[in-house]
Structures are given as structure tokens and as C-alpha cells.
Amino acid sequence: MFDRMPLRWRLTLLITSICAVTLLAAFSGYLAVELIKIRQSVSERMEGTQRLLVENATAILSRDPTATNFPLKSLAADPTVVAAAVYSADDHLLTKYIRTGVVEFIPRPRAITLNFSTDQVVIFRPLRYNGQQIGTLYLKAEFAGLERERLLEPLRGMAILFLLSMLFAVLASRFMQRGISDPISKLAEAARRVAVDGDYNVRVDSKAGGETGVLVEAFNSMLTTIQQRDAELVVAKTTAETARERLAEINVMLEEVNHTLEQKVQDRTAELEKMMLTAKDANQAKSSFLAKMSHELRTPMNAIIGYSEILLEDARDTGNQSAVDDLGKILGAARHLLGLINDVLDLSKIEAGRMDLFLENFDVGTLVREATTTVAPLIEKKHNRLVIECPANIGLMVADTTKLRQVLLNLLSNASKFTANGQITLVVSREFAGPQEFIFIKVKDTGIGMTTEQMSRLFHTFSQADASTTAKFGGTGLGLAISRQFARLMGGDVTAASEPGKGSVFTVRIPVHVAPVRATAVPFEIVSSRTPAPFAMHTPAAPPPAPMLAAVAPKPLTPAPKPASATPTLPGARVLIIADDPTVHNVLNQLLSKEGYTIAGTATSKESRTRAKEFRPNIIILDTLAPEVEGWNLLAQFKADAELSSIPVILLTMVDDVKTAGTALGAADYLIKPVDGSKLLPVLDRLCAAQKETSILVVEDDPPTRLMVCRLVEREGWMAVPAENGRRALDLLKTFTPSVVLLDLLMPEVDGFSVLREMRAHPEWREIPVVVLTSLDLTGEVRRLLQQQAERVLQKGRYTKEELLKEVRDAVREFAGRSIRGSRPPLDLTRMPTTPAPQAPPPA
Amino acid sequence: MKKILLVEDNEMNRDMLARRLQKRGFELLLAEDGLVAVKLAQTDKPDLILMDMSLPGMDGWEASRVLKADAATAGIPIIALTAHAMAEDREKALGAGCDEFETKPVDLASLLAKMATLLGPPTA
């Protein structure tokens, strides 16, 4: 109960209780002393009364032992005396006094006694005279009333005093305890609010000193600390929350980026796969077309050769010599054609990766004998001597006997073809080259030999030492290329060494044990090493000996061919890159600075226009990814600004459908990201070329020739813009106006005649000078027509390389500066052949 | 006189080869497709069959298989004639039971040599 009381009540109670106890103790002490004092005074009075009585009684008794006249009546004056009596010596009651109104029994005398009880005194006193008891006095006094009377009075005062004291104590305590209990109460209240309401803002407002003050202060500072902590916690929590949210956002962004990236990678992979498939398909289609064509060509060839032979036999039988001669020529030409067809079929099969090896175990000596027997008539025809150096124990080998025989026959017939009245030596040996054992077959001749330049083109398709060689010596020009591919297919090779006039040595080496090789696409080396090899999709299942096959190993996908010039079209041409994505800047910077361009960059903003005016770029590359609308706006602004409108702008975009919008707004070109050099550089070159004063459009489908002509043009200080076919040329003409067009006639897709026709029908292109460069043997009529429409017609076959270059140079020089020309007669389309018949090959 | 069955769908080739062989003293039986060839082989028992492989209807490979599966005709040597100068075609022809292989256009000398080997020494 007490424990549960509020502190202030407890304090009040405590103080009041202490006060009461103290007062009571004081009062009790006082009363006790008072009582003792009363008793003493009663006793003393009793003593006096008694002595008086004793003297009086003794005096009376001494005179008369039986006297009764004792003056007891005087006792009435003493209110305390209740009764008195005098006994004779023999204890006879002589007299007695009993207060009026009191019933009292007078006892028999006893021994001398003083009997003090709490409220009465009974005295028995012997009365002596001369040493003899002469009587006894009895006295009984009562003082209860007296005490009550005498005590009652102070008690009343004390009670009042007590009440007053208590009242004072309560009031005083209530006042004094405020200093103690108030702060504590406040503390308690504050603590309650903190605990129950969680309100840390409360502070105990108290000026209390001492421990309470310390407590309050500590409590307040504790609250402040907690609040600070709370605040810090809240801040930390908010920070954490923000960070968490940001993290979530970043995660989402990352996911998006990831997704986009994945998508991009997938797209690119799919694109690449598609490209590879397309390339593969194209290659396969080409090869199967060739194979089919070869097959289709064989059937009529079969008939031609067969009937020619029948007729030849008949003519011989009838002795018609002139018919025999003519039929012999027909048969020769037909066999040559058949040889070509066979070689083309072989090539197409090699290229399509469908050339399989049929490995057999056979005797090398036998093969050599067979081959030499076959070519013996050829060798004898040219009065050559054949020397065979083949060890008798050369032994067996595992290879494709048919292909090896073909290689041998090719080398031997070549040797006899280019050697007359000489010696052909066939050396066969078995040697180790590294860990592998090879059969080496050397075919040496003492023939016309070859120059280094001729050697370099030796193994290329359709390439004999000289264009005239075919006519002079026959052959398809495919034999060596096929021989080398066959040898390489078997893990070997064919190599050549020669000196003009001293003869040649061809060396075949084939492993003694040819490893089975799955059909492999062998990319052909074309005359120009700058032209990338066709896509090679297959890889050999069993890796062939590295050094031997290195040259024919499928090459990795090479990037698109670089433009003819390694330096930019306009030396130091300035390119301004406007993009918000730093990656775009980085990539383009790296790409273009390497190519010799001067680069500046800016973000898509208002300042990009200022930047463009300061920098005066030749070309602007604008990334439209960054808020696309801004890109468009910027493009529109550029085109609206007289100072900038002439600068061509290339748009970089993620989407394919901007072409219309971009070109409508005046973009010179657009590229879909990701942009690489193969896409960007030709565009830059073209746009730079358009800015150059003299630019030559070189339309030529043959890469080496195109490259050669471009080089020549560039050497003259003009800009060469290559186009690989007529369609491309017409596309390019839409983007710039060249000073001169150098035009080949025979081209895939759109040929030179069509280009010329288109150009002359187009009002803007009509006046562009055209120099026709052709290998066609033109009929007089066609030539005349061409000369009307073109400024000059140069025939490739008629000139040496140097002469042709000079002609081109002169023609370009002549027309490059020309701007106004005389009117041209209308083109007679009906008389212009679309596919001119090439000149018939000379008879073998 | 040796009896040769020439199976060839191309009229020109058939005529040409037939004429050249007749000139060299062979008796010629002609068939345009595999089915006729099989029937002729069974009824006329030629000494040798020159079989073009790409034929309409029953092709040369099928016809060769049928002929080689029939005891009555299994002994007749077959030279496969094909325009495909590929080793795999040779394998395929030999796999079908052909005894020899000649690439078109036919080199008569080579064909005659192969025929001679398969026909053995002249009997009559």
C-alpha cells in the first residue's frame, strides 16, 4: 500500500509520522513526570497528614488509652483522605472517619504498612509512646480523581498542540518535499512519456540541485543523446533506404543493360550467323552451280568430241586430209574446253569443300611409271628426254592415288609444254621432314623458266606466266592451282623454283601416310593479296601437319576490305563527333585518329553548334541515340544554319528506319550502330572525296585492277572513289559528282554499258566525263558507239600495264579539269549490246 | 561377234557410241532406260553392258543391282558410264555391282581397253 503511494504522499506521511512520534514521546515523558510529581505531592501530603494524626493520636492515647475523641473530622479538609481510624493497643477500633458519600470498610489493623496502589494509599501506623505501642492509625487516601484533574488539563493543551504540530508538519512537508519529489515526479512522468509514448522530445524542467539535479541533468542529457542517436539513426536509415532504392534502381538498370547487351549479342551473333550462312550458302550455291554447269556442259562436249572422232576416223578412212586437219582442230579445241570444264569442276569442288580424299595403299614406283607412260607422247613431241630417278625400293604410300596421279601428270605435261629439245628429270625420294615422312617428287626441266614476278602468280587460278602463254602453250591455267590444292588436301604441298631461261623445278611432297581429311573448303588465293579470302566455314576434323597446311587453313573472318587508301581521302580532314555517350567518342576517336583524321568531340547540346563553327569540320558524325529528338533538332539546326549547312552529317543510329527521316532532314548518310571501320571509313572517304576538287569514280569489278587504278589516280593527287560494280557506281553518283568516271564494261549486276546509258540519260550526270577501260574486244560498231558516249575507250589487252596507266593518266588529266563540254549525240540504245560476246579463245 | 547392250538415255550419245562400236565390229543392243535394259539383258543375254548411271525411271545403279541380283544376268560384266568424274560415283557404281567405270565423255581407246579386259580374248 505504502509502496504504491505517490512519492509526495509517502514523504508527507513519513514526515508527519516522525513528527507525531516525536510529539507523543515528548508528551508521554511530560505526563509521566507530572504523574510522579502528583504522586510525590500526595505522598508528602499524606505523610504530613499522617504525622499530624500520629502526634495527635499518640498524645490523646497517652493520656487516655481508650479515648475516642480524636479530631478526625478535620480530615474532611483533605479531599484525598477517604477513611481514617485509630485502633487501641489491643486493636479495638477507637474512632473512625469515613468521608461522606463514600462506602468504606475499615479493616483490622495489620503490621505497620504503607500500601501504595495505583490510585490509593493505605497506611497502618503503630502509635508508640515511650517505646510502647499504644495504638494503631489507619489511613486511606485516594488520589485518582486528583490525578485525573491535574493531568487532564495539560492533556487538553497537548492534544491541541499535537494537532497544530501535525497540521504544521503536513504543510511543511508538503512544501519542503516539493524540492525532492517534484523533480522526481517530473522525471517519472518524463520517463513514462518516453517509455509509453516514445516521445524523446520531453525534457525535465527543474532547477533542483544536489543528486536530483544531477539525476535530472543526466536524464535530460541521456534523452538528448538518445535523440541524437535517434536522429543519426533516422539519417542513417534514410541514407540506407536511399542507397537501397538506388541499388534497386541500378539493379533494374543493370538488368536492362544486361538484357540489351544480351539482346545485342544475340542480334549480332544471329546477324553474323546469318552472314556466315549467307556467305556459305552463296559459296555453296556458286559451287553447285559450277558443278551443275560443268555437268551440263559435258553432255554436249561428249557429243562434240564423239562425233568429231567419228568424222575424223571417216575422213582418215577416205583420205580427206583437209577434213582430217580441220576435224583435228575441232577435236583439239573441244578437248581443251573439256579440260577447262574438268578443272572448273575440280575447283568448284575444292572451294565447296566437297573434295574428298580416297586413301589407298599403293606402290609409288608403279604410279610414277604409269604417269610417265601417259605423258611420254607429249614429251617426245617436243623432242625432250625424260630421266627418271626413282629408287626401286621406294615402297608403298597411303594417299589419294587419282589426285596424286593428276598432280604428277600436270607437272610433267607443264614441263614438256615449256621445254623443247631439253631434258625433263623426275626425281622421287622418301625423306623425313620433321617427324613426318614424305614422298618427294621433283620435276625438273631445262625449259624457258620463270621470272620472280611470274612465280608469284604461279599457283593462282587462271594465271599462267603470261596472258599470251595460254595461246602459245595451251592449258587452262588452273592445273597448278588445282595441283597445289590437291597436295595440300593431302597434307603436302607443291612448290616451285625457277630462273628465266634456265628451267624450273617443281617439288611435290606428300606424307607417306596421308591423314584422312574431311571435306574442307580451301580458300583460293586470288592474285591480289589484299582481297579477303572467301569465307571458309569448314575446319579439318583431323588437324593436318601445321607447316604444310598453314597456308590453306581456313582464315578467320576478315573485316570488310579497307578502302584503297590507308590515309584519309582528305589529309587531316576534320571530323566533329557529336554524341552523349563517351564510348562513342572513344571508339570513333581511336578508329579515326588512326586513319589520320583530326577529331573534335562534343555532346548534343546548344554548344555543339558553336563548337562546329569553331572547328569547321569537313564532316560531322551525329549520334542520334541521345534523346533522339535532340539529334533530329540538332541536324535540322545545322542544316538551317548557312554557315554549317554545307557540312555533311553522318547519323549514327540504333534503328534502321531513320533513313527517310534522316535524309529528309539533310543527313549525308546514316550508319546503324555498332559502327566499325569497315562501315564508317568508306562513307568518310566518299564524303571527303566529294569535297575534294578532283575525284575519280573507279568502276571496276576486278579487285586487283580496281586497286591498281585507284593507286594510280591517287598518285596523281586525285581522289579515287572505288565502286565494285555498276550498281554501286550509280548509288555513289547520287551522293557526289566525280570529275571523271573510269568505267569497266564487263561487271556483275549492272554492267558498264548500263552505267553509261543511265549516266547519259540522267540530266545531272550527262556531262560527267567517262573513260571506258575494257578488256573486251569491241566490234567496230560498238566501239564507235562507245566513243560517242564516252570520252575515251581504252582497251586493256592492247596496252602493257605501263602504257595503260599512261593512257588512264592522260585521259583523267585531260578531263578532270573540264567542266563544260560540247553537246553529246543521243545514245542509240537499240544498237548498244547489253552483254557483248567475248572474243573467242584462240585455237589450241 | 560380241553383243553389247548400251544403256543411254541421251540419243546423241547413244547413237554416237553405238556407231563407233559397230564400226569396231560389235553387235549393239540399245536401251533408253533401266527397265528396258534389264528386260533386254534377260532376253538377249548380251556379252557386256555399257550402263549410263543417270537414267529416267530405273537408274543405272538400280538396274545394275537388279541385273547382278538375277542369277541369269549376274555373269554379264557391266561398265558404268557416268558424267560425274568423281571417285564417289565410281565407288557407288562399283557398289551397285558394276565391274568397271568410265567417265563421260568417253575416251574410246580407254573404253575399248576396258571392254577387252572384261570380254576376254575374242572367241569368234
Notes on the protein architecture:
The complex is a heterodimer of chains A (about 850) and B (about 120). Chain A contains 21 helices and 22 strands. Chain A is of the alpha/beta class and about 850 residues long. The two termini of chain A are about 140 Å apart. In chain A, helix 1 (about 5-65) runs antiparallel to helix 2 (about 145-175). Chain B is of the alpha/beta class and about 120 residues long. In chain B, about 45% of the residues lie in helices and about 20% in strands. A five-stranded parallel β-sheet of chain B has the order 2-1-3-4-5, with helices on both faces. In chain B, strand 3 (about 50), helix 3 and strand 4 (about 80) form a beta-alpha-beta unit. In chain B, helix 2 (about 35-45) runs parallel beside helix 3. Chain B starts with a strand and ends in a 5-residue tail after the last helix. The interface of A and B includes residues 299, 310, 342 and 402 of A.
Task: Give a short overview.
The complex is a heterodimer of chains A (844) and B (124). Chain A has 844 residues and is of the alpha/beta class.
List the helices and strands and how they pair.
The complex is a heterodimer of chains A (about 850) and B (about 120).
Chain A: H1 7-63, E1 81-88, E2 93-98, E3 113-116, E4 120-129, E5 132-142, H2 144-176, H3 178-197, H4 210-318, H5 321-351, E6 359-363, H6 364-381, E7 385-389, E8 396-400, H7 401-417, E9 423-433, E10 436-445, H8 452-456, H9 467-473, H10 479-489, E11 493-499, E12 503-511, H11 546-549, E13 574-578, H12 582-594, E14 598-602, H13 607-615, E15 619-623, H14 628-640, E16 649-653, H15 659-664, E17 669-672, H16 677-691, E18 695-699, H17 703-715, E19 719-723, H18 726-735, E20 740-744, H19 752-761, E21 770-774, H20 780-789, E22 792-795, H21 801-816
Parallel strand pairs in A: 7-9, 13-14, 13-15, 15-16, 16-17, 18-19, 18-20, 20-21, 21-22
Antiparallel strand pairs in A: 1-2, 1-5, 3-4, 4-5, 6-8, 9-10, 10-12, 11-12
Helix pairs in contact in A: 1-2, 3-4, 4-5, 5-10, 6-7, 7-10, 18-19
Chain B: E1 3-7, H1 11-23, E2 27-31, H2 34-44, E3 48-52, H3 60-69, E4 78-82, H4 87-95, E5 100-103, H5 108-119
Parallel strand pairs in B: 1-2, 1-3, 3-4, 4-5
Helix pairs in contact in B: 2-3
